[in-house]
Amino acid sequence: MNMKKYSKFIGVVIVISALAIFSFRFGEKTTSKKPNIIIILADDAGYNDFGFMGSPDIKTLNLDQLAINGVRFADAHVTSTVCSPSRAGLMSGRYQQRFGHECNGPTGLDGMDTTETTLASVLKRNGYTTAAFGKWHLGSAPSFHPNKRGFDYFYGFLGGARNYFSNAKADKAEDCAMQENGTYTTFDGYLTDVLGDKTVDFIRKNKENPFFIYLAYNAVHTPMEATEADLKRFEGHPRQMLAAMTWAMDRSIGNVLDELKKDNLLENTLIFFLSDNGGPTTHNTSSNYPLKGVKGKEFEGGKRVPFVVSWNGKIKGSRQFNGLVSSFDIFATALDAANIQQPTGKPLDGTSLLPYLQELKSGSPYDGLFWRKDNDAAVRDGSYELIRVDNLGYRLYNLQNDLGETHDLQYLDTIQFNKMKNALEKWE
Which of the 8 DSSP states describes residue 372? Predict the structure, then answer.
């Protein structure tokens, strides 16, 4: 081989070697697995009942840290003011009115339309191992079961509420009984802790491949029950039971986050935290301050919720996002993060928040959103909100300077009132 050819040969070898070294050192970044996705859902939590939301008396150290690491949304809403339809909107990425799931059904047999595609189903088809823990409340009949709606594993109960300690009455009622993949079971200890422990165990067993976890606590829904140790911690607290139950949920979430850190998964895990609707206040002493209204009502207190999104290394933390967002955005955001094409056939109503979270887009994802439960309804148009209350008529508020919804503007701004009333009627 002459010198010219030899030099050329050596050059090719060097280039190939460099590429090989680059691939070895950085291949994990270029061929890394899809991100793990976790949705953590509280039940009936008050807007003001977390440290990161400004609560002066409820302690949530782990969730506060999650909020510091992530983005807190100041104008986040769920799609319904009550449990079951709110979960249907989240799980489908669509207004639940599209498939007749507007209210809590009269029985647990009334579940989410089986022709609707769930987020779990899409992720499962794309290589994710999927698991649901805790409260389901999307139907008790076999066709509605979590294992039939895209979840490989289910540990929880099918109905809307149950006791936090195992007892004969709760464990025999079909909707309230704990089960594991359709087989009824019992548990020891406090259910909020148990759900966290089961989630931790699932992470340990499935850490090698991408997973999707839907961790739906029944805390802080009634019945109000806490451990003696947690109650003692908050002895003398004006809302002792709620403080103890919230502390337990935060502890359970902390255990899940600790497991992700231990397994070096935190930087490849997209985490959502929110409540399923506003606090019912008189039922569990929750606080929606400074919002007006409660669970079941279309005022802000019924549907504006604490909402945090965290993804270490991918989303810059310690920020607040002020744009209008909805829980049905979780579906599109999760698929975007996993680089999965949205399912065809039925359009999603939600949009991916990822460009906003990664500061590729600014502003608000929506100019307006809609809500309805029975004859009550609401519509947003920028900072304006129009409320329709059954048998009482309409109310128009400007939330920018009246977050507590105290000054009705419908007679002062008739143009805005008619615009929003017509938009709501058209949507309906």
Answer: E
- Helix ranges (DSSP H) in 47-164: 61-69, 83-92, 119-125
Q: In this structure, which topology does domain 375-427 adopt according to CATH?
A: Arylsulfatase, C-terminal domain (3.30.1120)
Q: Which CATH number fits domain 33-357: 3.40.1110.10, 3.40.720.10, 3.40.50.300, 3.40.50.1010?
A: 3.40.720.10
CA distances from 396 to 49, 402, 404 (A): 27, 11, 12
| Domain layout of the chain by residue ranges | 33-357, 375-427
Phi/psi for 309 (5° steps) reads: -125, 130
pLDDT for res 344? 83
Query: Distance (Å, rounded) from C-alpha 237 to C-alpha 228?
Result: 14
The letter for the amino acid at 335 is: L
Give the C-alpha separation, 379 to 387, whole Å. 7
Query: Residues with catalytic annotation?
Result: 83, 137
pLDDT digits over 367-421, tens only?
999 999 999 999 999 999 999 999 999 999 999 999 999 999 999 999 999 999 9
> And the tokens for 161?
């509420």
pLDDT at 171: 81
In 115-192, which ranges are E strands?
Answer: 129-135, 153-157, 179-180, 183-184
Distances (CA, A) of 130 to 48, 71, 285, 304: 31, 25, 34, 28
pLDDT-based confidence at 333, cuts 50/70/90? very high
> What letter would DSSP give residue 152?
S
The amino acid occupying position 193 is: D
Residue 27: the pLDDT is 34
Mean pLDDT rounded to a whole number for the chain: 92
The predicted pLDDT at position 289 comes to 98
With CA atoms as reference, report the closest residue to 79 among 89, 67, 66.
89
* pTM: predicted TM-score of the whole model, two decimal places: 0.92
Average pLDDT over residues 181-207: 97
